[in-house]
Every structure is written in C-alpha cells, then in structure tokens.
Amino acid sequence: MEAAMSNGATAMDMDLEGESVAMDICCTSDEGDQEEKKGQEDRGVDASLRETDILHLTRVCEKRLLQKGQGLSSPVPGASCKISLQIAGGTCECDAQSLGYPSGESSVQIGEGDTRLSSIIDIALLRMKRGEISELKIYRELGCEEYTLLHITLLDFSSATSYWRMTPTEKYATAVRHKERGTFLFREGHIEPAFARFSVATRLLLSAQPRYFSEDEDGEKSCQQLLCQCYLNLAACQMKTGCHNHVVTNCSHALELEPSNVKARYRRASALISLGDYSLAKEDLEKGLLQEPCNRVLNDLLQTVSAKLSQSNAYLAKGLSKMFA
Q1: DSSP assignments along 80-113, one per residue
Q2: How many other CB atoms sit within 10 Å of the CB of residue 246?
Q3: In this predicted structure, what is the pLDDT of residue 75?
Q4: Could you give the CA distance from residue 63 to residue 134 in angstroms, rounded to a whole number?
Q5: Cβ-Cβ contacts under 8 Å for 278 (sequence gap 6 or more)
Q6: What is the pLDDT of residue 283?
Q7: Residue 264 near residue 209 (C-beta atoms within 8 A)
Q8: Crossing angle of helices 217-240/262-274, nearest 10°?
Q9: pTM for this one?
Q10: Mean per-residue pLDDT for 219-227?
C-alpha cells in the first residue's frame, strides 16, 4: 500500500515517546485440486500425509496441513514452543534476518516474532497441535505471486497464562512491554511487527480496564494514559500504510480518553486531509492550536488546509452559480 508519510516526516509524526497483528482464520476446501496434489508429490510429500484443508491465516498466507498433530490443545500467546523450521522453496529470497526464527530445531515464544514472517509463523502455531507438520505459503504482499514456502513442525510446547486469565496488574505490565517493543520496532522501520505489538497492548488494556479501574485510582490513570498512547501508535503505523480511515478511528478513541491531546489532533487532521475532509481537519488543527498556539507544524498544516478549503469552496460556488444562472 502507498505510504502516507514521506521519509522526511516531522518529529511530531515520528515521536512515539511516552506513548493483529490480529488476523482471522477461515477454512476453504481444496478437494479436487489435482494440480496442487501433483506439486506436493513433486516436493516429496507422502500422499498419506496430505490433507484437503487450507487455512488462510491472512490474505497473504496459506497454511496446509501435512501431518496431523496429537491431542486437542494448542499453544496460547506467550507459550514457549519447540519447533523445527525449514525453508522449503518459493520464489522470494529468504534469509535468517527476514525469517526471524532460526532454521532447524529451536525454541520460540509465541508473540515475540518481530519480523513479518515470524509474526505469521506465530499465528500458525496458535492453530497447531503437538507433533503437527504444516506448510506455510507466504506471499510477499497482497496480490503478489512471489512467495516463500516454509515447513514447520510443532515438536512440543509448554503452557502459558492465557491473556484472559491474567490479573489486571499482569495485563498492564505485559501491555507496557509490548508497547515499548513496538516503539523500538517502529523507529527501526518495522511497521507490521510494531503494529502487532501495539495491537496486543491495546487488547490487553481494554480487557483490563473495568476491574483495574475499580481497584486503584492511580492504576486507572496509568492504564488510561497507556491506552491513549497505544491508539496513537496504531494510528502512526496506519498512516505509514495509507489506512486513513483507521487513523481517524484510532485518533478519535485517543481523544475520547484525552480531549486535549495535540498529537491525536494532528494525526487525525492529517488523515482527514488525505480523505478530502478539509473542514473537519481545520477544526482539529484549530483545537490543537488552542493547546499549543506556537506549534509551527500545526500552523503550517492549517495554512495548507485553509488554502485547500478556500479552493474547494470557490469551485463549489462557481458550480452553483452556473446551476442557478
């Protein structure tokens, strides 16, 4: 997707100090796909291990079951897993750095993958059983035919405390860790893994709020501040990928928590400009300037918006005059 900000972004854009990927899984049938079966035979996959289901982990990844696992339980986020990972082919170059996890046998913790590929591997592990072998076909990007082919075996895993079983204090501490790691990744230019970290932190804080707020007034304030920062960080990632509607939504959530937050005003205004809503963008910038009258970035953007709004109004007036002439 087209980036929303240039490499010369302002400090206000990039500063995250003080501040899934959640993806659904659905099943589709692959029965009768003779061509794919032949491809499996060419790769040496035994016919007895083939399954007919393909799990679409994301719009850019397919997970194919090669060997069923044992039992009913699967790992949960935070679980330590012993896995065997092999690069099985594909048309994209894949090295250790982009993979994120070592090839061969290794121990990994779900949720700690900080590359695009390792984040997808984490999602796959959440749907695997002990002893399962699966094939991941990960496309370079949406609509692209280039892909990386991985074989992954879940050898074993240890139990971990599910997020819903955590106490509010544990959720808050875990959210802080994910938020801080996400901030580091964002500054390094790793937008997708950063977004995943901020998403986890946000979900933890949202689930912690009711009980946490009732137990501790200071805890309520800290949780609310961190949640606002996470919303802003999600918006910063979405600005990078041009998801302007989502930027508006997350900045609006942040402003519900902190109506005087200038950064939220600025980011929402920037997204509104990209969406062509100059009136609301101007309103956000003017409210931001009430908090920080000398903010040069806000003033410059307000001048740009005012010029665009005047141009738009003039064009509309000209059209109306012709209509009623």
Answers
A1: EEEEEEEEEEESS---HHHH-S-SEEEEEETT--
A2: 16
A3: 94
A4: 7
A5: 272, 305, 308, 309, 312
A6: 96
A7: no
A8: 30
A9: 0.71
A10: 86
* Token pair recorded at residue 76: 């949960």
Tokens 């007036």 locate to 317
Write down the H helix ranges in the chain: 11-14, 34-42, 96-99, 116-125, 168-187, 191-215, 217-240, 244-257, 262-274, 278-291, 296-323
Name the token pair of 43.
Answer: 């790769």
CA angle 171, 176, 185 (to 5 degrees): 130
Q: What is the pLDDT of residues 81-111, one digit of tens each?
A: 999 999 999 998 887 778 889 999 999 999 8
Residue 55's identity, in one-letter code, is L
What type of residue is 293? P
Residue 90 CA: distances (Å) to CA of 20, 41, 93, 106, 210:
25, 16, 8, 22, 47
| Tokens of residue 212, six digits | 């946490």
Instruction: Report how far residue 210's alpha carbon sits from residue 227's, in angstroms, rounded to the nearest whole number.
Output: 13
Q: Which residue has the higher pLDDT, 89 or 144?
A: 89
pLDDT band at 165 (very low <50, low <70, confident <90, very high): confident
Three-state SS at 287: helix
Show the DSSP H helices in 10-142 as ranges. Answer: 11-14, 34-42, 96-99, 116-125
Which of 153 and 315 is assigned the larger pLDDT?
A: 153
Which residues 6+ apart lie within 8 Å of 311 measured at CB?
A: none
CB 2 within 8 A of CB 256: no
What's CA 50's distance to the chain center, in Å?
A: 32
